[in-house]
């Protein structure tokens, strides 16, 4: 590529609205340009990197036996209503209407769409297991888009979905994706950890996030310094607070009793909950104490009731137990038979919440028969709730350290949630109808690009790992007006291209200082400088990563760079 006509305009100054290094460098090196909040164009050099990451992802998905397809971004609201997520997903779901006033979502994820396709096309166990994936633009109206493409409102994701005939099968499909993810992030030269993540009602071990360790990460990871233990502390802490009142129901022991709330008080509570990320409250419904944990999830106009359950339905063995339960378990115990999050949109909040809570006291309503140990994993991560740095690791090996992480991937055992909601069944060996058992697996492809830059840069610019570098070589005549230099450069450009190296050829008539500065900013692994010694056929090869410089005769160049 000839740089003189290449759309890659570098910026000298650090753009004032770019807080983190990857964002600054992507703007300065001309990889991306902002269109509007959280929405970016990829310029040619940025797209090259995106494609490299995409191809690594594609190769590893294919190797794991997944089949690539492409699903639509425009998804009918009916599908989302069928799964319950039209309401549940809240303000993050981008919604549009067509000319007939029909409603659609711009896909933030594709469980609904893929499930209906597999439902209609797969009937027999003989076709299963099957894992399908796509690499496609996703839309999420993030409350706070920031850090450039790290948190965009339009971004590139790889999403995969597995369909199995049993939970054992799901375990296998999950493991394959997990291994593929390890390969992908290793090939991207990222320092990552797979951490236990929040799976709501599903229990702690059924989902992992792939976190790139980085100070700009928005998640905090608790990990052991001498074992594989690592978890997102998101799954742990919730501040349990409750209101003062006079009488004390027996089951709740020493705990202060909640008072009956008026609708206004509940509304007020919900608005507070919107500010803080997570809050909880006890109040009475039908004279029964009900603990509500509310979680505002980066969104302005909604709150999510993370877990709702009737205190009555948890077996409480006495005061000590009660307190323990409240202080250690309540934060992440999820009720079964209930969707993980119930999303409440602004003005409907009070009504919906009060209904939902009442429902908890009725037969066959959402929140019945919660059984710790059977329905969710109590022991596994109980110690995490108030975990601090320096505590012993829950697995008994080493002590806990904290680190920030960027979530670049997420693997998740869905079970039958979507197959049941959307009727995706198969006939088993005995001719019996069963729901398919699903998993879902995401990678933020564009976010990964930014994470790579966060990890691979220095004070002069990006330092691309070879696996994702937009070009391998930056070919740089110091003075293109000098015949010898230009001639030798042209020859090298041609022969390197013929050898299938990807070469960015700085054929601009710029001052050397400008060219070198740009080269450092672009951060290609090798720079080949053609200068005064061109007449003797001598070049300078500089390794961007180490700064090492070698003088090489043109005849030996290929040997050296291989
Ligand atoms: P986050 O916690 O950062 O909001 P998420 O848990 O909502 O992410 P998932 O639903 O797990 O995201 O989606 C799969 C992957 O898509 C994530 O692991 C992440 O790498 C990527 N991703 C999610 N949201 C964004 C975004 N707004 N911009 C860029 N990438 C994103
Ligand atoms: Mg999110
Ligand atoms: Mg997340
Ligand atoms: Mg996630």
Automatic annotation (TrEMBL):
Q: Which reaction does it catalyse?
A: tRNA(Pro) + L-proline + ATP = L-prolyl-tRNA(Pro) + AMP + diphosphate
The record's principal subcellular location, in a coarse class, is cytoplasm
Q: Name one GO cellular component term.
A: cytosol
According to its UniProt record, this protein's enzyme class is ligase
In short, the EC number is 6.1.1.15
Keywords attached to this Swiss-Prot or TrEMBL record, sorted alphabetically, are: Aminoacyl-tRNA synthetase, ATP-binding, Cytoplasm, Ligase, Nucleotide-binding, Protein biosynthesis
Please give the SUPFAM superfamilies that the UniProt record associates with this protein.
Answer: Class II aaRS ABD-related, Class II aaRS and biotin synthetases, YbaK/ProRS associated domain
Report the PROSITE patterns cross-referenced here: AA_TRNA_LIGASE_II
For this entry, list what GO says about its biological process: prolyl-tRNA aminoacylation
Q: Which family does it belong to?
A: Belongs to the class-II aminoacyl-tRNA synthetase family. ProS type 1 subfamily.
* Subunit text: Homodimer.
What the entry lists under HAMAP family is as follows: Pro_tRNA_synth_type1
Q: What is this protein called?
A: Proline--tRNA ligase
The lineage, from the top, is: Bacteria, Bacillati, Bacillota, Bacilli, Bacillales
């Amino acid at each position: 590529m000839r740089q003189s006509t290449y759309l890659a305009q570098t910026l000298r100054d650090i753009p004032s609205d770019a807080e983190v290094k990857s964002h600054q460098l992507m703007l300065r090196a001309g990889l991306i340009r902002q269109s509007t909040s959280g929405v970016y164009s990829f310029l040619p050099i940025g797209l090259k990197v995106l494609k490299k990451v995409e191809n690594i992802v594609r190769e590893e998905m294919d190797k794991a036996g997944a089949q690539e397809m492409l699903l639509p971004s425009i998804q009918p609201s009916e599908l989302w209503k069928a799964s319950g997520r039209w309401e549940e997903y809240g303000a993050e779901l981008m919604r549009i209407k067509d000319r007939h006033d029909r409603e659609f979502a711009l896909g933030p994820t594709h469980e609904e769409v893929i499930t209906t396709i597999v439902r209609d096309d797969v009937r027999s166990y003989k076709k299963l297991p099957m894992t399908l994936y796509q690499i496609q633009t996703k839309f999420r109206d993030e409350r706070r888009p920031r850090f450039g493409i790290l948190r965009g409102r339009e971004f590139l994701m790889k999403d995969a979905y597995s369909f199995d005939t049993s939970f054992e099968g799901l375990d296998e499909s999950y493991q394959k994706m997990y291994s593929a993810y390890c390969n992908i992030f290793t090939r991207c030269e990222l320092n990552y950890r797979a951490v236990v993540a929040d799976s709501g009602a599903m229990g702690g071990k059924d989902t992992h996030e792939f976190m790139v360790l980085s100070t700009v990460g928005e998640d905090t990871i608790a990990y052991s310094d001498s074992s594989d233990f690592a978890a997102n502390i998101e799954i742990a802490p919730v501040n349990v607070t409750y209101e003062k009142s006079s009488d004390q129901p027996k089951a709740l022991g020493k705990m202060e009793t909640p008072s009956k709330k008026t609708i206004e008080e509940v509304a007020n509570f919900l608005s507070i909950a919107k500010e803080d990320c997570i809050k909880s409250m006890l109040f009475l419904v039908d004279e029964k104490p009900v603990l509500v944990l509310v979680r505002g999830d980066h969104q302005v106009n909604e709150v999510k009731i993370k877990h709702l359950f009737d205190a009555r339905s948890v077996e409480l063995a006495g005061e000590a137990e009660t307190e323990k339960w409240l202080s250690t378990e309540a934060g992440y115990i999820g009720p079964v038979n209930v969707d993980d999050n119930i999303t409440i949109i602004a003005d409907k909040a009070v009504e919906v919440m009060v209904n939902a809570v009442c429902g908890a006291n009725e037969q066959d309503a959402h929140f019945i028969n919660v059984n710790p140990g059977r329905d969710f994993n109590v022991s596994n991560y109980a110690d995490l709730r108030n975990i601090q740095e320096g505590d012993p690791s829950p697995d008994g090996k080493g002590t806990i350290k904290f680190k920030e992480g960027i979530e670049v991937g997420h693997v998740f055992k869905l079970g039958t949630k979507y197959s049941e909601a959307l009727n995706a069944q198969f006939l088993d060996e005995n001719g019996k109808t069963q729901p398919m058992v699903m998993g879902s697996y995401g990678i933020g492809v564009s976010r990964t690009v930014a994470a790579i830059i966060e990890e691979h840069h220095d004070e002069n610019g990006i330092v691309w790992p070879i696996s994702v570098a937009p070009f391998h070589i930056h070919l740089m005549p110091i003075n293109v007006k000098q015949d010898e230099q230009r001639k030798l450069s042209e020859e090298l450009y041609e022969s390197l291209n013929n050898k299938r190296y990807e070469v960015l050829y700085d054929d601009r008539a710029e001052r050397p200082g400008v060219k070198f500065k740009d080269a450092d900013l672009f951060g290609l692994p090798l720079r080949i400088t053609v200068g005064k010694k061109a007449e003797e056929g001598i070049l300078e090869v500089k390794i961007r990563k180490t700064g090492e410089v070698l003088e090489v005769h043109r005849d030996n160049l290929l040997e050296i760079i291989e």
